[in-house]
Automatic annotation (TrEMBL):
Protein name as annotated: O-fucosyltransferase family protein
UniProt signal peptide: none
Glycosyltransferase listed as a keyword: yes
Transmembrane segments: 69-90
Amino acid sequence: MHGLSRLGTVRSVSATATGASSSPPSSPRLRHGRNKNTGFGVGRWGKQQNLVERLVLVVISVVFKRKGVLLLAPLLYISGMLLYMGSLGFDVVDLKSVVVVHKRTPPPGSLYTSPQLFQKLWPLMEANATHNALMTAWNSKVHQVWKPCANDSISKAELPKSNGFLIIEANGGLNQQRLSICDAVAVAGLLNATLVIPIFHLNSVWRDSSKFGDIFDEDFFIHALRNNVNVVKELPGDILERFDNNMSSIVNLRVKAWSSPTYYLQKVLPKLVHMRAVRIAPFSNRLAHGVPSYIQGLRCFVNFETMRFSEPIRTLAEKMVERMVKNSSQTGGKYVSVHLRFETDMVAFSCCEYDGGEEERREMDIARERSWRGKFRKRGRIIRPGANRVDGKCPLTPLEVGMMLRGMGFDNTTSVYVAAGKIYKAEKYMAPLRQMFPRLETKDTLATPEELAAFKGHSSRLAALDYTVCLHSEVFVTTQGGNFPHFLMGHRRYLYGGHAKTIKPDKRKLALLFDSPNIRWDEFKRQMQDMLRHSDAKGSELRKPSASLYTFPMPDCMCIDDSLTGYIHEWERLS
């Protein structure tokens, strides 16, 4: 084994990489809603739009032919754009340099009219509840059953002498930290480095001061990795003395996001060997998806086999799961879990509008300024609430989640666990969901105040409780994306034979359906059940080269179970 890198030379790593590194996905904070509805420019408006475009182009071409008046070009361009936007029927309002665009005749799906639709459909929901979809939610014909095999790729050989100590800083919430930890172990394995237990950065949004050992079982983590990567709880004293006993004196390498293994071997390894200790902070998304199979296998092993929660979290979480199972005796111990992203910060960040009017807008402005100072007030920033909704970017309300589930066939006997932070105006927005599902639980109702006392004020520890209850549900519903559902879907695939057992709704379609005042209940049900079948069919997806194995663990972390696959084929033949 190579003394500097367990994978040999840089050239060999490049040759064995399983895929090219992908460019980092654009942040949702930077993406503007893109309305894919092309129906804006038809008929009378289309003709007017074409006329304005021709006029603007003619004027600009004349200006550019006369060099003496080139300075007028920007002014003419802006005037033309204003005429263009006016021709589309938009009201453009400048509120303290933030442009808010409202269309005079809102396109279908751009308004929040779900409460009105609920009032119309509610009597029919109650009258037509005939069976519970919980017992038959997952009916896709499985032709291959997968089993965990993350352990198979793990080396049992003795570790070579370490090249130095790697210190990383994990930021974000629970699952962002989890991603950083898994990738840090993978990088330590790549560089043959000793990993110091990761430091958790105090995030301005999450505001959780928890350390690694408060959330994860530190001793179990170190022991489980003993044959793969050396892990220590703190930097040894003799190494720290070389940096005047000051951790901040250790050089911080600014590694770009999604860096390749080659980059680490060429740029980071020499500094590690020379200085004996390096820091990488922040360490979020700092390793590419496409890495050699050995490193990919190490990622699998870390995420699915070593990241056990700390004893206090495990103890309470197991009690909560037991209580959910007991409360679900009418459905054979099966229950539905929902990751509901309707906290104040999420509603504010989405720039969507609901039914709270001017009071809601004022509260959302305050929330945006508190958490993202000035980001949403930059000059030229365009906020399009209607376009965001049509494009499926608005968080589903509790009412919309309830209507969707009732349409899919989950009746009022279904036990539902809601994983969420503090819901925006919870008394108002949670009421209809409780009306549709009386057996609704949250961590605050499932655990006693005394049991939760040690977790209050620690969002990552509370998220770990939610994570565990959702992991063991028969059906998991994701409503807004993010690391929490992505890690859960992967973990559920790893546990349940390769199937995520997750409902991932089409929010573009939902926006149109919820804004259809004349839709019949039978048609609404048909659309929801089609959406459930689609989620079922997509439950066993394999990882694409640009995707994350934390969400799609097949085939990197799992193997086909030939014994069960053969049994299923035989059962299908006989039936």
